[in-house]
Amino acid sequence: xxxFKLEEIPVDDMQALGLHDGQNLLLDNTQLEHLLSxxxxxxVQLNNVKIENDNxxxxxxxxxxxxxxxxxxxxxxHPIYKDLKQHPDLSPEENQAFAKGGxxxxxxxxxxxxxxxxxxxxxxxxxxxxxxxxxxEKQNGEKKFVWGIGLKSALxxxxxxxxxQVQLSVTGKEQVKTQDKKGNWIEAERLGWNIKPIxxxxxxxxxxxxxxxxxxxxxxxLPQEYVKHIEEINGMPLTEEQKRRYKEGxxxxxPDGTSVQASPASTDLIRSDKNLLILSMVLDxxxxxxxxxxxxxxxxxxxxxxxxxxxxxxxxxDALKKVQTDLERKQARFxxxxxxxxxINIVKQESTRISPSNxxxxxxxxxxxxxxxxxxxxxxxNQKNQTTGAxxxxxxxxxxxxxxxxxxR
Length: 409
Prior knowledge:
Elements: H1 11-16, E1 24-25, H2 29-36, E2 44-50, E3 56-67, E4 73-79, H3 92-98, E5 103-121, E6 130-137, E7 143-147, H4 150-158, E8 165-179, E9 185-197, E10 206-213, E11 218-223, E12 230-233, E13 236-237, H5 240-247, E14 252-253, E15 259-262, E16 270-272, E17 276-283, E18 286-293, E19 296-297, E20 312-313, H6 314-333, H7 338-353, H8 356-359, E21 363-364, H9 372-388, E22 407-408
């Protein structure tokens, strides 16, 4: 499912970047798919780009499409910056904190009962500068921390207290005085906030997730409504709490140890500690199974990523069968699509790899919890098999292919 149509791509902008020759769009199939899906592309070479003094240069940059206020598609360029590129919608404290790495959620509208508020290091991380928070609770018990230095003055002006039902909304940027790293007072822009009683017919919430992209030294943002609505990961259903946390950019760890996280800076908008993922999503009124291969590795604060190859749930086996069925249906409709055939082969290889004869008892019957004794026993059998050379199939490395095909429009 795409968020943009091919005819929505701004042709004039693409021509100016050397990515359209007047008849054809000069992007390969993989890059085009990412662009139309609303994802950020990998690096593409931009030719004859005008800079100061009408000089023209060639440079590498990533691209993305976003809806403009008038509803049209706008082309965004993510070049490589020499130094950290500050994001205009983030405060200096947020730019500094988010650049440490990871995915962060920034709320610009929220509602609920005030249950606490006060000054604290941003995100309660002692390494961050002081900020201000308001903790809200909805009627369903869901809690949320909203951060912003401007919240303090907004709360004082509104005269609301703990226990009040309120609507928080960003009003825009305002000029304030603050201290720089050297302690000097300077003018800076802050987000202003408005706090008022909840009006049931007008209550709203909105948030954006941000991720620092070290390849471009800039931030990539994604409204939470663009984050995929995932029902299952590798055959394991998500709880409502897990779905909420995923959309906020929080890392999820599934019962079999698989870690996943929404990622604005990744081409597939997802990171994981597994190269192969099967995501179940509600598309067109039904549950669809999507195969993701070559997924970007999840950030792990410098620690070595550990692949859990010995633990599989029954749900993962079932998900492989379902995604294979879906792919075979697509192949019947598009018999000449080599990508579909490649995906089918990968699914078959994975099914063979985890079949009972090859896993030697590694499959864990999924009731939501893995049995440590079963895992230990399975690992011991695997070690014995590896020593004797029996029944072990190595998982092949998978990389996406660039076809270099010109797209006609």
